[in-house]
Every structure is written in C-alpha cells, then in structure tokens.
Design a protein that fits this description.
mainly alpha; Citrate Synthase, domain 1; Cytochrome p450-Terp, domain 2; 2 domains; two-stranded antiparallel ribbon; 53% helix
Length: 405
C-alpha cells in the first residue's frame, strides 16, 4: 500500500459480530477455489460442473499447480501418485489394534496420526502429495479391517486414483458391473468434494493448526476432527436418512404430487427438510446436478434416487413460499448419500470418511500455499484472534466487556 493511501476496508466489525462463528469475516486468500453465491463452485476459475468428469489426477494437479497438466506432466504426476501410494504395514497394524466399536472417523484420524509418525518429514510440499497419494489406501484399509473383509489390498500400478481405491476396497461379492458403477461414482464424488473455498470449518481448522508450523499430518488431523462433527461432515448421512424416511412415508409408486404433499406436511410441522440450502450459494449447488446426472447412469430406478430427483423437482417451489428461507435449492448432500448407498457402500457411518478422503486434497493444497507461498514465501503468521473478557459472556443477556486477551 502506498504511503498515505487509504486502507481497503473489506468489512466493518461491530459487537454483534462477536460469537457469530466468524461467518463472513475475511481472514485471508484462497488460491484453489471460490464459492460464488450466484454462480457456484469454481476450482482455479474452472466451474466444477464443467470439469467433474475429468480424471481426479488432473484436477489434483490443477489445485496444486493452478493449471492443467500437459500430456507429459500428466503421465509424470500420475506416476508420482502411484509410486507414493504404498503404505507401510505399521499403519495397517495400528488400525488392526483399534476397537471395532470406534467410529470410522476416529479410525481415520488415528491413521493420519500414524502416517505422520511414519512419513512426516517437515516438508509441507512433500507431505501434501505423500498424503494425497496414500489416503485412498488408508481409507480402503479402514473399511476392510473394520468390516472384517480381510487384510488390506495393495494398489495396482495400472489403475488410476479412484479405480485403485475401489480395487483396494475389494467389497466382498461385488461383480464387475457393480465395481464399474462404484468407480464411475467415486471418480465424480471425489472431484466435486476436493475443495470448497477457504473458510469452511475443516479447511480453516487445518490451516489454523498449520499456522503454528505443525506438520501436514497433525494439521490434517485437526481438520478431520472438525469434519467429524455433526454440523459439518455428517450432512450426507443425515440426508440419506431423510430420503429413506421420505420413501417410507409415501406409496411404492410415489409421484411428484405425493412428494409435494409430504414436504408441505413437514413444513407445517416445522420439520427440517434436509438437502436444501447452502451457507453461501443462492442458486442450486452445481454439484447436486452433477451427482444426479451420475445417478441417472448408475442407478436410475433406485427408490432412494427417485426420491432425490422428485425432491429436487418440487422442493424449491415449496420452500420458496417461506420468506425466511434464503436458499431453497438442493445442495450436494441431497444426492451423495443415496448414490453411495446405491453403488454398494451400504454403511452410512463411513460417508464422512469418504468426504474426508476427498477433502484432504483441497486442504493440503491450501496449507501448502499458506505455509510456503503466502506473503512472498514467508507464510502466514500464527492464527491469533482477539477475545474480549466478559465475566458472564452472553449467558445472561447483553455481554459486558471488561477487558481483552
């Protein structure tokens, strides 16, 4: 900023801004993705809806290098991910010692901790791509060990990123056609969940932890602890439960009119309509459209998917009747859980882990920027917000500020 130039005012904070979850408060720059209220989600300027069918490896390259790979770069980058995808047996041994009753996300966080013990090197760029390369094998191993499907399966050198994940899952009794459907879904599911701006909770927490110069694995563990919370990463599971409840309340051959009446009844009873609305978007989440398109290819007659489609068709017009609802459109969670179920991943407890499997990519790329590239390579400083001392806070009404710290 030039001497005597007026600072660029981005936001005026008032007392009402406190205890608001930092919603809308600007804190930094995101170089990987943007969420535009009237347009949707973009990765490095590319509309996610337009690139959702690209190979996941290409999109990972885009997020880390801010451009698409040329043919030789693509070959080299894919080879790098395959080479680093092998996971030390010590990680799997530690998973086998965990109690089966533990939630899959706790297993996921445990695995991140052990990966850090084995592969941590205090080089954010190296750790980021190591983690991105290994996380499919670790996620697949969590399924296999926890579900009693057998020992972890090694990755194959001839398979792509998500093709290898499905191979390493090795779902018992899955035939070639079912495996192909799951691959088709996971390639798209992975890409559309890679990143979502810089301020969502898990991404912000990961960057906040990294600001203390914790390594990539420690930072990602913090991020996934945030994702594990029911207000963040569990939404796809809650939407599936809602869809199944809706299916149970209508006749077998339900119609749009049946679904419309059901929504009206739920709204009259002040019940939550899951799968609609977004913190930022004021148009339909383009990822929801992408997933419904995949559903038409892999499970067009699945009863839950039929409900997903009809809710997307009639839900917005009913929700628009409520002036308190700012975004009546379907979001990505409206379809994802139902498609995972239809594609053979029938235990919803794992859906947040699958979300985490994908989101690791964007969070890792954002951590690399903040630690290695921001402020001319110095990195961002340690996160240190200000809190006002108030003996009762807002527990008894208006807060009385007595100091700060």
């Amino acid at each position: 900023m030039q001497e005597n130039a007026k600072p660029d005012v981005l936001m005026t904070l008032t007392k009402e801004s406190l205890e608001s979850g930092l919603r809308g408060v600007p804190v930094g720059y995101c170089t990987t993705s943007s969420v535009l209220a009237d347009k949707g989600l973009f990765y490095v300027g590319e509309a996610v809806e337009a690139i959702s069918d690209r190979d996941p490896e290409d999109v990972i390259h885009l997020l880390f290098h801010k451009r698409w790979p040329n043919p030789s770069e693509r070959t080299a980058f894919s080879a790098l991910l395959r080479e680093r995808s092998v996971v030390d047996h010590a990680v799997f041994a530690s998973l086998k010692a965990l109690p089966k009753a533990g939630h899959p996300m706790k297993w996921f966080m445990h695995a991140l901790n052990v990966l850090g013990m084995v592969y941590g090197c205090r080089d954010y760029q190296r750790e980021a791509l190591d983690l991105v390369a290994k996380i499919p094998a670790v996620t697949a191993a969590i399924f296999r060990i926890r579900e009693g499907w057998g020992d972890p399966i090694a990755p194959r050198a001839d398979l792509g990123y998500m093709e290898n994940f499905v191979h390493m899952l090795g779902i018992p009794g899955q035939d070639d056609a079912a495996r192909a459907r799951l691959v088709k879904l996971m390639r798209v599911f992975d890409v559309v969940h890679f990143d979502h701006g810089g301020g969502n909770l898990s991404t912000f927490v990961g960057k906040a932890v990294a600001s203390s110069k914790s390594d990539m694995y420690e930072s990602m563990l913090g991020a996934m602890a945030g994702l594990a919370g029911p207000l963040h990463g569990r939404a796809n599971q809650e939407c599936l439960e809602f869809i199944q409840e809706c299916v149970g309340k209508v006749s077998k051959n339900f119609t749009a009119d049946d679904v419309r009446k059901m929504i009206q009844a739920k709204l009259d009873n002040k019940e939550v309509i899951y799968g609609f609305g977004h913190a930022v978007l004021r148009v339909e989440d383009p990822r929801a459209r992408v997933l419904r398109k995949v559903g038409e290819e892999i499970c067009p007659n699945d009863v839950n998917f039929r409900m997903v489609k009809l809710l997307a068709e009639v839900g917005p017009e009913e929700l628009k009747k409520n002036p308190k609802i700012s975004d009546p459109h379907p979001n990505v969670d409206s379809a994802s859980g139902s498609l995972l179920m239809a594609a053979g991943l029938t235990n919803p407890d794992y859906y947040t882990v699958l979300f985490g499997l994908s989101r690791v990519v964007g969070i890792a790329a954002q951590i690399v920027y903040e630690r290695c590239e921001a402020r001319g390579g110095k990195g961002t400083p340690i996160i240190r917000p200000k809190y006002y001392y108030s003996p009762d806070g807002t527990a008894k009404g208006e807060a009385v500020i007595a100091g700060s710290g």
